[in-house]
Amino acid sequence: MRIRTTEDLGRMLREERKRQGYTQAELAEAAGVGVTYVINIEHGKQTAEIGKALHLVELLSIDLVAERRGA
Predict the structure, then answer these.
(1) What is the pLDDT of residues 41-56, one digit of tens each?
(2) How far is the C-alpha of 39 from the C-alpha of 61, rounded, in Å?
(3) Could you tell me which of 18, 31, 36, 65 has the fewest CB atoms within 10 Å of its CB?
(4) Looking at residue 70, what is its pLDDT?
(5) Which is nearest to 10 in space by CA: 47, 52, 55, 40?
(6) b/e string for 11-37 if b means 16 or more Cβ within 10 A?
(7) pLDDT digit string (tens) for the chain, length 71 residues
(8) CA–CA distance, 71 with 25 (Å, rounded to integer)
């Protein structure tokens, strides 16, 4: 999945969380963040802190790859 927007990132996190059987509350607890943070990032809220978002990505064993366009 190509991540171009905060909505794309949120969608990917939500899908993977559900695939792994986590509730939002369980993921929030594992990440040391509030449930509201997980809800906000899953809805693509642009004020989500990138460090916390990357921690959620890590907890769900997702690899994010950055590549130069046209390379």
Answers:
(1) 999 998 778 888 889 9
(2) 19
(3) 65
(4) 80
(5) 40
(6) bbbbebbeeeebebeebbeebebeeeb
(7) 778 888 999 999 999 999 999 999 999 999 999 999 999 999 999 877 888 888 999 999 999 887 777 86
(8) 40
CB-CB neighbours of 4 under 10 Å:
8
pTM: 0.80
User: Which residue's structure tokens are 């899953």?
Assistant: 42
CA 21, 26, 32, 36 dihedral sign is positive
Rounded alpha-carbon distances, angstroms, from residue 6 to 23, 42, 50, 71: 20, 9, 10, 24
The DSSP code for 20 is: T
